Amino acid sequence: MPTLFAKIIRGEIPSKQLYQDDLVTAFRDINPQAPTHILIVPNKVIPTVNELTSDDEQITARMMMVAKKLAAQEGIAESGYRLIINCNGHGGQEVFHMHMHLIGGRPLGPMLWGSSLVG
Ligand code: 5GP
Q1: Is 37 designated active site?
Q2: For an engineered disulfide with 27, which of 10, 13, 15, 69 has Cβ 3.0 to 4.6 Å away?
Q3: Cβ of 4 below 6 Å from ligand 1
Q4: Chain-wide mean pLDDT for the chain?
C-alpha cells in the first residue's frame, strides 16, 4: 500500500506543494501548528529514521538544504524556526513515511511542549 505521503508526492492527493526535485518533495502541512508549517519528505518511502541506511545520506542532506531554502523563502530565516523529525510512538510519529517538519512564523516556546521531562 502506498503511504499517504507517497500519494501526495505523486499528485494523487492534492497538496500545497512548494518544492520538488529528484530526491525530496515539500508541501504545507494540512493542520499547521504555526504560520509556516511545511513537511519535507523523501520521494522514496523510508518509514522512520530507524530504517535510514548510509545509502540515504544524500536524501537526508537534501532535506536539510531544502529546509534552509524554504525558511528563507518563507521569510523566517532570521526570526527563527524549528526542524523536527518524529520517530515511532514516543516521538509522536503518525505518518510512517519519514518527514521533516519546518515550523516557524511565531515564537515556538520550549522545545518539549506537551511532554514532561520528568516522565
Ligand atoms: P507526524 O506526526 O507523523 O510527524 O506528522 C504527520 C503530519 O502530517 C501532521 O502534522 C499532519 O497534520 C500531516 N498530515 C496528515 N495528513 C495530511 C494530508 O493529507 N496532507 C498534508 N498536507 N498533511 C497531512
Answers
A1: no
A2: 15
A3: yes
A4: 94
